[in-house]
Each structure stands twice: as structure tokens, then as C-alpha cells.
Design a protein that fits this description.
Number of helices: 7
Distance between the termini: 18 Å
Bound molecules: NADPH dihydro-nicotinamide-adenine-dinucleotide phosphate
Number of domains: 2
Number of strands: 17
Largest sheet: 7 strands, mixed
Helix content: 10-25%
CATH class of the largest domain: Alpha Beta
Strand content: 25-35%
CATH superfamily of the largest domain: FAD/NAD(P)-binding domain
CATH architecture of the largest domain: 3-Layer(bba) Sandwich
Length: about 300
């Protein structure tokens, strides 16, 4: 068994920022890096909206810089998947890969969120070859091309509008006969001449030699008018929502109906004293690296205060 003062789960901007602050506060934190080192940012191609990088930066370099900054002040980093937790006692317990037990006074959860995918084989086959879950990250590569966005919510509409500013044509593939997005976003999408909304369509498969060149869609599945239709596209963007990576904590932490960890006001405090949530796992709204970094800072400051007050 390993006893720690402060454990941080997650190696995205929230986790590393928490680690920088916690290590500078002499908490000697242990950061557990999971299956996606560097977090969601590493699926983008270039980061242009994080302050301090006027020329943009590639996400791997940025995350490596954050990692080295955390290590410089004494953060220890291990790689592994936390498979079980017990947050019932004053000392919080974590199991890595089911076997290695860690105990900690303060726990900072920065496990992020994952974009939802449709679950069709093509998404795997064309991953990085025309399939993306982030228009703001990858849209630039599709300038003057034709793309499709899947989804009918605010994110899908936002992404379709963003892409319409870059691309020649944007299909919005919506499974229902209506958009779920807010009225204002619907109006913008429906009045944009570059966007064609395909209501009541579902994606069957993507096609193309080496990268996405088209998609086979099914219209009105299961109805008399059912029909397979093909569209020519160069890019396929998923915008069907995100799932916060919080299932592990379901027995102990209050979560909202979508699974985001509920925190107290604008603090990172959860319903369990000594347990803090930072970044996208607790943020259904902003989901930005700079916001995640800020909440990681808050979580470390709260953890330090907690440890001081409980005289560990
Ligand atoms: P939502 O859950 O609101 O929308 C998801 C969309 O994806 C729905 O249209 C849903 O269809 C569709 N979908 C889900 N699964 C599938 C599937 N398997 N196949 C095809 N379509 C699918 O997620 P968002 O990310 O859009 O938004 C999340 C929250 O963030 C919302 O509250 C939203 O309002 C908010 N938001 C606000 C913004 C703003 O105010 N600027 C910007 C972005 C998000 P169906 O409708 O049939 O369920």
C-alpha cells in the first residue's frame, strides 16, 4: 500500500495544472496518467487558442511542456488505469489495474470526457483519415472541401456553422425530423446556404480508398420510404455529444444526469470532503483547455487548504 498526500487522476491540462500547483505547495503529488496521455487535446492537430502561444503550438509539445513543468517541482507520474475507488473513509483508496492500492488524503479527479462515436466500424477504419470529433481542431484541413457533420444539437450546429465558414459545402446528418439545438442555432443553420440538413438520415458506412471520400446513409430506416443514399464528402465530423469519464466514481460522487461531477458553486469541491473535480469531467459547458487548466489550479489550492485544515 502506498500512502500519499495528494493524488491527481488525469494528464490533461486540468491534471497537469493541478500537479504544478500541488507540487509547488509541497504536497508532493502523484499523478496517474491514464490511457490517453495528454488528454483530449492530443487528438487535435494544433492549439491556437491557449494564451501564450502566438504562433500556435502542437498539442503534444504543449502537453509535454506542462508535464515537464509539473515534474520540475516534484510531481511523480505513473501510468495506469484506476479501476476501483473507495471514497467512503477519510483516507481515499484507489486501485490501479485492480492490484496496486494507493491511499491519499486529497484526491483531484481530472479524468476528462470523451467524444461519443456512432459505433460503426468505418469510424475506426478511417480514424485520422477524414474522421474527426472536433471541427474547431481539424476544420482547417478541409478548406474549400465538402464535409458532413453528424448530430442535431447545439454542438453539431456550431460545428456545421464553423465548417461552413471554411468549406465549400456542409451536410448536417440528423437522425430525427427536427433539430434539438436552440432556436437561434437552428435558424442560423437552416438559413446558411452552404449547409444542407439531411433530416431522418443515419450513417451506414464511410467509403473511400485511403481516406474518407463518401458516406452511405439510410433515409427513414424501417419506414416504407426507406432508401440508401450516398453523399460525396472529404471529412466526417461527429458531434453527437461527450461522455464524461466519471463512471468509476458513481457510488460516491453526485453527478448530473449526463454523468458530469457536480461541484459546489464555481469551486471544484465535490460532495465528498477532500475530493475535487477539475476540467471536462465536471464541465458540461465550456470544455476548453484553458478553462480546464484554471479549474486544476483551483482544485490544487483547495486540496492544500483541506490538508492544512485537517492537520495531516
Ligand atoms: P446534445 O446531447 O444536445 O445533442 C446530441 C445530438 O446528437 C442530438 O441531436 C442527438 O440526436 C444526436 N445523436 C446522439 N446519438 C446519436 C447517434 N447515435 N446517431 C445520430 N445522432 C445522434 O449534445 P451537444 O454536444 O450538442 O450539447 C450538449 C450540451 O451543451 C447541450 O445542453 C447544449 O445545449 C450545450 N451546448 C451549448 C452551446 C452553446 O450554447 N453555444 C454549444 C454547444 C453545446 P437526438 O436529437 O435524436 O437525440
Amino acid at each position: 500500500m502506498n500512502k500519499e498526500k495528494c493524488i491527481i487522476i488525469g494528464s490533461g491540462p486540468a491534471g497537469y495544472t493541478a500537479a504544478i500547483y500541488a507540487s509547488r505547495a509541497n504536497l508532493h503529488p502523484l499523478l496517474i496518467e491514464g490511457p490517453q496521455p495528454g488528454g483530449q487535446l492530443t487528438i487535435t492537430t494544433e492549439v491556437e487558442n491557449f494564451p501564450g502561444y502566438p504562433d500556435g503550438i502542437d498539442p503534444f509539445t504543449m502537453m509535454d511542456d506542462m508535464r515537464r513543468q509539473a515534474e520540475r517541482f516534484g510531481t511523480r507520474i505513473i501510468t495506469g488505469i484506476v479501476t476501483k475507488v473507495d471514497l467512503s473513509g477519510e483516507s481515499k483508496k484507489l486501485w490501479v489495474e485492480d492490484t496496486d492500492l494507493y491511499e491519499t488524503d486529497a484526491l483531484i479527479i481530472a479524468t476528462g470526457a470523451s467524444a461519443k462515436f456512432l459505433g460503426i466500424q468505418s469510424e475506426e477504419d478511417y480514424r485520422g483519415k477524414g474522421v474527426s470529433a472536433c471541427a474547431t481542431c481539424d476544420g482547417f484541413f478541409y478548406r474549400k472541401k465538402t464535409v458532413a457533420v453528424v448530430g442535431g444539437g447545439d454542438t453539431a450546429c456550431e460545428e456545421a456553422l464553423y465548417l461552413a465558414g471554411l468549406c465549400e459545402k456542409v451536410y448536417l446528418i440528423v437522425r430525427k425530423p427536427y433539430l434539438r439545438a436552440s432556436k437561434i442555432m437552428q435558424d442560423r443553420v437552416l438559413s446558411n446556404p452552404k449547409i444542407e440538413v439531411l433530416f431522418e438520415h443515419n450513417t451506414l458506412r464511410l467509403t473511400g480508398e485511403n481516406r474518407v471520400e463518401g458516406a452511405d446513409l439510410i433515409y427513414k430506416k424501417g419506414e416504407p420510404e426507406e432508401e440508401i443514399r450516398h453523399i460525396d464528402i472529404n471529412g466526417f465530423f461527429l458531434a453527437i455529444g461527450h461522455k464524461p469519464n466519471t463512471d468509476l466514481f458513481a457510488d460516491y460522487l453526485t453527478r448530473d444526469e449526463e454523468g458530469y461531477i457536480v461541484t459546489e458553486g464555481d469551486s471544484p469541491r465535490t460532495n465528498v470532503p477532500g475530493v475535487y473535480a477539475a476540467g471536462d469531467c465536471a464541465d458540461p459547458h465550456y470544455r476548453q483547455a484553458v478553462v480546464a487548466a484554471g479549474s486544476g489550479c483551483k482544485a490544487a489550492m483547495e486540496a492544500e487548504k483541506y490538508i492544512q485544515n485537517t492537520k495531516k
